[in-house]
Each structure stands twice: as C-alpha cells, then as structure tokens.
Design brief:
By secondary structure, the chain is mainly beta. The chain contains 2 helices and 25 strands. The longest helix is centred in the C-terminal third of the chain and has 8 residues, at 275-282. The termini are far apart. Bound molecules: thymidine-5'-diphosphate.
C-alpha cells in the first residue's frame, strides 16, 4: 500500500535526488535526447552504463554505491529507484526517456520492480581525484575540412565489458578505455517508427560509438568507395565510427534504442549532410 493510501505523508526526497526534464527533439522519424557533460549533468563523464533483463518484480542493484554524481534514465520500460536511508524508503518510478533522476552525491540506491522490457541508463561522474586525458576536441580548433583518408576499415566493432546473470545484465563504457575518447555527450534515439531512417550524414571531426541498447537496427557505413552494413542487435556490442564516414541507420525493430557515445558536444558545423559534398570531400586527394 502506498504511504498516501495508508494515511501517511509521502517520503520527502533526499536532497541529493532531483528529477530533471531532459531535452527532447521530436521528429516524425523518432525522438532524440542528447545529454552533454557539464551542461545537462553537472559533472564530467566517468562511466556510462546501461542495464536490462532484470526479472520483473525483482530487486536489482546495477551499481551499488558510487562516488560522485550520476544521472539515471529509463531508456525503455520503467523501474523504481529506491534509497533506504530513511524510513519509509525514498522511491521514485522512472518511465520516460525524457526524464532523468540526478543523484548529486555518493549514495546507495537500487532498482526495484523493473518492467519486463526495462532498459536503464546510468551516466556517472569521474571518480574524484582521477586525472583523465582531456578530449582532443576540447583543445583543438575544429578544422573546416573532413579527413579525406578515413575509410570504413577505420570503423570497427566494439565489445563492452558486461556482466549478466539471472538478475539482469549491465554493460559499462569508460572513456579512454572502452572507447578511444572522452564521452562528452551521450544521446539516444527512441520511438523510431518502423521504416524510418536516421543518420544520413558524416562528421568532420566527431568520433562516435553506436550501440543497440534495446532491440536492433542496421548501420550502413560509406567512405565514398565502399559500403559496409552492420546489424546492431546486442546491448554489449557496438560500432566505432571514425570522422569522415557517412552513416545511415535503418530497419529499427519495435522498441529499439540507439545509444550513442560521442567525443564532443553537438555542433552543426561538424556535420556534412549532403552526400555529393561528402563524396567530393573524400575524393579531393
Ligand atoms: P541528427 O544528428 O541529424 O539525427 P540522426 O543522425 O539521429 O538522424 O539530429 C537530429 C536533430 O537533433 C538535428 O536538428 C540536430 C539535433 N541534435 C541536437 O540538438 N543535439 C544532438 O546532440 C544531436 C545528435 C542532434
């Protein structure tokens, strides 16, 4: 029975917890939410995790405790985030990809009552005191030219560390270790209608890793000469896309979630959206 039904006041959220309305870019070809470090969450990315497959109704602790802040989002389905430090426990249900729960400091929390399809995203801060290299992107001026030399052979499959069992599966990506860049931005596509395609552009400098955190979709990579199409359909494997590669995303399964880890903040000037311009750039040398 809920505290309200029992005639009690609902528990006061601990002051470390704050629900955030995340930016959402709706289009006919699906929704996109983009989260940039130090902008949409007030810390630099130390680790990005996503979890799924917890049996419905089970209690589940994907992270135990962590140091520093974190942002938790239900990418698909719903689950409760529970903190037992007070009586009654604080409990909040996450059920929308455009709502995040920001945990400001180190605390212990767990997931309870996930729906059968639930997929959660946790972006957590760098461990305090750890020195990590800065993103090249932050130091360098964006060059106006795309690298004409990169080919689809510079793109590669990435398998992330993951552990799973009867309690569900957790996959983790640490900047500079599991991906070759600082994760300056995390964005995800959701509610992509069947038959819709995404992408259809290249980047001058941006590096990205794409993962099917839920469901599946195809990624076609083009370098102006060759084409390679990959199907992403496992939550712990993705594709690294180097700068100067054209990508098209298609054949999204129902409920698919494309999670992208990106090396730099959003910058429209980094896009090449015209395929003829892209091909001219690739053949410039
Ligand atoms: P776009 O990158 O073209 O989408 P996709 O490659 O997934 O098909 O972005 C769609 C729109 O969202 C476009 O207007 C730019 C905007 N956007 C942001 O504002 N921030 C972001 O981080 C991203 C990826 C897109």
């Amino acid at each position: 029975m809920s505290p309200e039904m029992a005639g009690q006041l609902p528990p006061v959220p601990p002051r470390e917890y704050r629900l955030l309305s995340l930016p959402q870019i709706p289009e006919a070809r699906g929704n996109l939410t983009a989260l940039e470090e130090l902008v949409h969450f007030p810390f630099r990315t130390g680790c990005v995790r996503w979890f799924h497959g917890a049996p419905a109704g089970n209690s589940w602790s994907p992270s135990g405790s962590h140091v520093g802040g974190a942002l938790v989002v239900a990418l698909l389905g719903s689950f409760d985030v529970v903190d037992d430090r007070q009586d009654p426990s604080y409990r909040v249900r996450l059920s929308r990809a455009s709502i995040g729960l920001h945990l400001a400091t180190s605390t212990r929390w767990r997931v309870e009552d996930p729906s059968t399809n639930a997929v959660g995203l946790v972006i957590s801060s760098q461990p305090s005191g750890s020195a990590r290299p800065e993103s090249n992107q932050l130091d360098d001026e964006l060059s106006a030219e795309m690298d004409p030399e990169t080919t689809i052979d510079d793109c590669r499959a990435v398998t992330f560390p993951h552990h799973g069992g009867s309690q569900g599966s957790v996959t983790a990506a640490i900047p500079w270790i599991d991906v070759p860049f600082q994760i300056s931005r995390v964005y995800y596509l959701y509610d992509v209608p069947g038959g819709a395609s995404r992408g259809g552009h290249a980047h001058r400098e941006l590096e990205e890793v794409l993962v099917a955190a839920a469901g599946s979709f195809d990624v076609a990579l083009k370098d102006g000469r060759q084409v390679k199409t990959l199907r992403l359909d496992r939550a712990h494997s993705g594709v690294y896309i180097s700068p100067g590669i054209w990508r098209e995303l298609r054949t999204f399964s129902s409920g698919a979630r494309c999670l992208t880890l990106a090396s730099a903040p959003y910058d429209e000037a980094d896009y090449i959206r015209n395929y003829h311009e892209f091909r001219r750039g690739k053949h410039a040398q």
